[in-house]
Structures are given as structure tokens and as C-alpha cells.
Write a structure and sequence with these properties.
Blueprint lengths: L1 E13 L4 E13 L3 E5 L6 H8 L7 E6 L2 E2 L5 H10 L1 E4 L11 H11 L4 H14 L15 H13 L5 E5 L7 H18 L2 E6 L10 E6 L2 E4 L1
Parallel strand pairs: 3-8, 3-9, 6-7, 7-8
Antiparallel strand pairs: 1-2, 1-4, 4-5, 9-10
This protein binds adenosine-5'-diphosphate and magnesium ion.
The site of magnesium ion has 5 residues, from helix 1.
Length: about 220
């Protein structure tokens, strides 16, 4: 069974002057354990697709099945729970709380989910060690560099060992050497967490680091 099954997904983005049919029948399947890079130029609809998959926006047509559940049919509470437990999201602009420490940023979602602090803390420290941020765990997020925030956001998303990690341009502003490092990190950490990955990026090189690549073009997704 597929972990993720997207069928004929459609989304029109409407602003005051225009309406843009961004997703025009996206089909895509992901098996449990698979790591996939979804590549496409800026503005082609990658973030829109991730927002729909994470249940942050509603589709105008089609369906998303995640682990047997129809995402479009879940309530807000169910979606919030899904994002805390089963679906990790690394946003393009990290969305860490700037005045909280790195460790607290990692702990917060699990605390909201009423999970035991000692268990959360152990896992958080373990992840921070693995990405070379052990010494920064009590620094505030607004004191960290872009690359450090990027790694921290990946740790936060993988902390609950989600079934699927969605990552939106996790290497957006990095040079090619550092991009490679982040891809490598995503691969090894997701393997360790037992998480599948759907990573969207405009970097055509990214597919080489994942199990396979997909291309987003004209509002649709095809193998590449
Ligand atoms: N709120 C919005 N209203 C209208 N158009 C939007 C809105 N947000 C994004 N768009 C447009 O939709 C298209 C897809 O955006 P996006 O999903 O962010 O692309 P990507 O992540 O691939 O760069 C772009 O052309 C963008 O300008
Ligand atoms: Mg985007």
C-alpha cells in the first residue's frame, strides 16, 4: 500500500486581479520508506502542493490519501494531531520561534502533544548531536545562522519520527557544497527515524541524493 496517494489534485490561487490554476491534476504516489525529490522552477506550485499535503490549505479538486486517511476530510483538530505525530514539515522559512532556545523549539510540539519531557529531551539532544548543534541547544533561534536554523528545523520535524517528512526548499539559500550536506543529513536522519521524505526544490541536482526524482511542470507532476 502507498503511504501517500495523490489523485488529480487541483488548486486555483485567487487574488484580487487574477486567478492562477497552479495545480492542474497532480498525481503522485509514495511508498513507505521512499525518499523523493520533487523538482521544479520557482513559482510552479511546489509550496502550494506541500501546503495541501500538510492539510494547511484545502484543494479545489482531487484527493490526498495519507496512510489510509483522506486528508481533505479531516477536522482541524485531526489535522493538527496529524502534523504533530505523523507528518513532519520543514518550512521554507523554518518557522522557529525566534526568542525561544533551540532546545525549546524542538520540545514545543511534543509538549503540546503531552508527551513526557524526559523522553522528548533525550531525542532532541540526540538529534542536535547528530547535526552538530549540541553546543547551540541553549542559544536563542534568533542568534543562529541560516544553515543552523535549517538543520534545527529538520531536527524539529523528525523528532516524533513522523511517517512522512515534507521539506520545502530546505537548501534554498545555500551553496552547492552545503546543499549536499543538507541532502545527506535529510537522507541519514530520515532513515534513522524511519520516515519517508518528499523534498521540493528548484535544484535539479537534488534527485541524485534521493531514491528518485519527480518534475513539476504545467501544474502536473511527472517522473524525471
Ligand atoms: N495567495 C496567492 N494568490 C495568488 N497567487 C499566488 C498566491 N500564492 C502564490 N501564488 C502564485 O502561485 C504560483 C505558485 O506559487 P508557489 O506554490 O509558491 O510556487 P513555488 O513554491 O514552486 O515557488 C506562483 O505563480 C505564485 O506567484
Ligand atoms: Mg516555494
Amino acid at each position: 500500500m502507498n503511504l501517500l496517494e495523490v489523485k488529480d489534485l487541483r488548486k486555483v490561487l485567487v487574488s484580487t486581479e487574477t486567478s492562477v490554476p497552479v495545480l492542474q491534476g497532480v498525481n503522485l504516489n509514495l511508498q513507505a520508506g521512499e525518499r523523493v525529490a520533487l523538482i521544479g522552477p520557482s513559482g510552479c506550485g511546489k509550496s502550494t502542493l506541500l501546503n495541501l499535503l500538510a492539510g494547511l490549505e484545502k484543494a479545489d479538486g482531487g484527493s490526498i490519501h495519507f496512510d489510509g486517511k483522506e486528508v481533505g476530510a479531516l477536522s482541524r483538530t485531526q489535522l493538527a494531531q496529524l502534523r504533530r505525530r505523523e507528518l513532519g514539515v520543514v518550512f521554507q522559512f523554518f518557522n522557529l520561534f525566534p526568542s525561544l532556545t533551540l532546545l525549546d523549539n524542538l520540545l514545543l510540539p511534543g509538549l503540546l502533544d503531552r508527551r513526557p519531557l524526559s523522553q522528548l529531551r533525550g531525542r532532541a539532544q540526540d538529534l542536535l548531536n547528530q547535526v552538530g548543534l549540541r553546543d547551540k541547544s541553549s542559544a536563542r533561534a534568533n542568534e543562529l545562522s541560516g544553515g543552523e536554523l535549517q538543520r534545527a528545523a529538520i531536527c524539529r520535524a523528525l523528532l516524533p519520527r513522523p511517517k512522512l517528512l515534507l521539506a520545502d526548499e530546505p537548501t534554498g539559500s545555500l551553496d552547492s557544497e552545503n546543499r549536499g550536506r543538507i541532502y545527506e543529513l535529510l537522507r541519514t536522519l530520515s532513515q534513522e527515524s524511519g520516515s519517508s521524505v518528499l523534498m521540493v526544490t528548484h535544484d535539479p541536482e537534488a534527485a541524485a541524493w534521493m531514491d528518485r526524482g519527480l518534475l513539476m511542470r504545467d501544474g502536473k507532476v511527472e517522473p524525471c
